[in-house]
Amino acid sequence: MKRLGVAGALVGGNYRAGDVEIDEDSGRVAAVGLARPGRGLAIPGLIDLQVNGFAGVDFLNADADGYVRAGIALARTGVVAFQPALITDRPDRTISAIITAGKAQSVPVGARVLGAHLEGPFLSRERPGTHPVEYLRTPDLTLAQRLLNAGPVTQLTLAPELPGAVELVDLCVRSGVLVSCGHSDATAAATHAAVDHGARLITHLFDAMRPFTHRDPGIAGDALTRREVTIGLIADPSHLAPEAIHLAFRAAADRIILVTDDLAAGGCPDGHYRLGSVDFEVSDGVARRTDGTLAGTTITLLEAVRHACDIGVTTEAAVNAATCTPATLYPGLDLGLLRPGDRADVLVLDDALRLRKVLLRGIPVEHQAPATDRTHERYRFS
């Protein structure tokens, strides 16, 4: 048995004072709330449902070795499970990337691959963000079935206003795939129709979607008022103003999922990178295409948690949005909680929520595999 030496922990989403004990033999949490506590905070490992790449690896173009490098690098930042997000591209390239993601699920080190998040191609040409417009298309059930058959697709983002979108939602629901609304110019009515058919997520609220107004609330209005909808949110200063983050948490704190929308540039120096077939530049950590369009982020999920806390979101709400709330979408995978008997995927943070230690099944991450030399020094911990 080993104690973490913390002052308290988030247990089942709520703060509990006292130390945490890990059973190293079983790789599970043995006890919480123990006397003689130390300093800092233990939290469950983080879950990121939208990661385009990391540590120099772009998941649309990644091979098996790339997934190993990225998975270890993500684990070193505190992420224990993630969905590789695949930007819109040619169907053959997307299918190849889905197959690779499926093979990566068996990688025994680093963060776990939950399955592929297809962020397209059934998106709006009015709200493409950084997606290549030439590859966007209206819902095509034959193509969609080919994509779903290619491997472990766990989430698909679509624009609910497109012709055939509701039928595509039905197909995904029957196939056990989570449907998210995003990159869309949909009205609230069109979004309500998709939710009525089983869409249950929103892809990066406020970004790349119809703006909220008092007579035309769009996707945002639907997201903030439908209790069955879980809301993805990029909490970094480049994507959302503090007031927008506050609004989302005050309206739907228990339904917010923090995501990074990370790129291959995550954990790397500024410079030139690619996202699928799209070129972008990173300057001062901000990623943009040559036309100025934001291309994603280079933050870590723990940085997103800290940013939310810095602007006034409670620690419990911010951490839960990166742990137990996304875990509810994947029941049975032993993720997102820190109770006796739970899998010991645990982060140890200091009093400023800076990372001090990452445990996967009770084993420190640095003991699981050699460090990758493509991970930027600021994401290593002493």
Automatic annotation (TrEMBL):
What is the cofactor note? Binds 1 divalent metal cation per subunit.
Gene3D superfamilies named among the record's database cross-references: Metal-dependent hydrolases (3.20.20.140), Urease, subunit C, domain 1 (2.30.40.10)
Task: Identify which residues the record assigns to the active site.
Answer: D261 (proton donor/acceptor)
Q: Name one Pfam family in it.
A: Amidohydro_1
Domain Amidohydrolase-related: start-end pairs: 42-351
Q: Which residues bind Zn(2+)?
A: E119, H183, H204
Which InterPro entries does the UniProt entry name for this protein? Answer: Amidohydro-rel, GlcNAc_6-P_deAcase, Metal-dep_hydrolase_composite, Metal_Hydrolase
Keyword Metal-binding in the entry? The reply is yes
Keyword Metal-binding on entry:
yes
Q: What is this protein called?
A: N-acetylglucosamine-6-phosphate deacetylase
